[in-house]
Known about the structure:
Strands 1, 2, 3, 4, 5, 6, 7, 8 and 9 form a nine-stranded mixed sheet that branches. The chain has two domains: 1-31; 35-43 and 54-160 and 216-293, Alpha-Beta Complex (Replication Fork Single-Stranded DNA Binding Protein), CATH 3.90.198.10. The radius of gyration is 23 Å and the shape is globular. By secondary structure, it is of the alpha+beta class. A hairpin with a 5-residue loop joins strand 3 and strand 4. It has helices at 3-15, 17-30, 97-108, 111-120, 152-162, 221-229, 244-254, 273-279, 289-293; strands at 39-41, 50-57, 68-77, 83-87, 123-135, 145-150, 184-195, 198-204, 209-210. 27% of the residues are buried. Helix 3 (97-108) runs antiparallel to helix 4. It is built from nine helices and nine strands. Zinc ion is lined by residues 74, 88, 90, 96, 98-99, 122.
Amino acid sequence: MSDDFLKDLLEAEKSGEIDKELLDSIESEKTTYKVDERILELNVPKDKTSRVIRGRFLPKRQGSRNNYIKRYKHVFKGANKKWIDEICPTTFKKDCPICDKNKKMWDAGSDAQIEVKNHRKRDLKYYANFYVEKDDINPENNGKVFILRFPKTIFEKIEKALKPEFEDEKPVNAFKLLDDGANFVFRMTKEKKPIGGKMVEVPNYEKCTFETPSAFMDGDIDEIRKVMESCHNLESLLEGCKSYEELSEKLDSVDSIKIAGESIPKMSNRQGVDDLFENDEDKEEDVDIDDIVNSNNEEDELPF
Ligand SMILES: [Zn+2]
């Protein structure tokens, strides 16, 4: 070791530079989480009361078999405060150790176990390519194609438009580009819902709707081609699903819950994510924060 090096090191100690370095590096670890820039969230920012996004669902891109993707995920903090952020194998109609454990807790039925189960429930989201014509909150999104993450409520609107309730209504296919398709307007407000024992602000999608059918880009083929070429690979969202064994192992590694009823840890509320991420020092880098923030606690066909 050279004398200069040691001299500089000790100088840095005296000046307090070393403390600052350590604090900065701890701070940067805290604020690192995965943000997928391709994904557009249907949320209303904290300081706003509403948001309008007008645009068009896009059909499957070349080489893809899907207009949209349906994906279940588990995102929660385990008993030892480590995070689970994993695709639920039920997405592919396979067995899932987390859902199985939830079922055991559901069957056991104590309040504490049901609370844990609720917190660990799989969360359903749909994904499709979406062209943003106008976003009133983030105009930098205008004219771009994103992977739109949307809840079941919106999917049901797509389904209903395709199979209208009344005879005089014309079916609309959200994924058609020409005259039978239509733009979609997300008019979102906020509402408070009791989730996990406290009132949580969640988006309200009641006023989201299709516009009158019309051809995308006025049917201009060159414009349509340009947009379609910017579509994202939806199938990439289904990569990385762990096997039953791998997922069991991961669950064991974050867990110490005894199903029989002893030692149920106090869980933090997955919905209260704002306080979670402002105050929580234990989060890991690979947690996808949007999965938690946008979990709307919608009804699932599984009770557990
Ligand atoms: Zn599962």
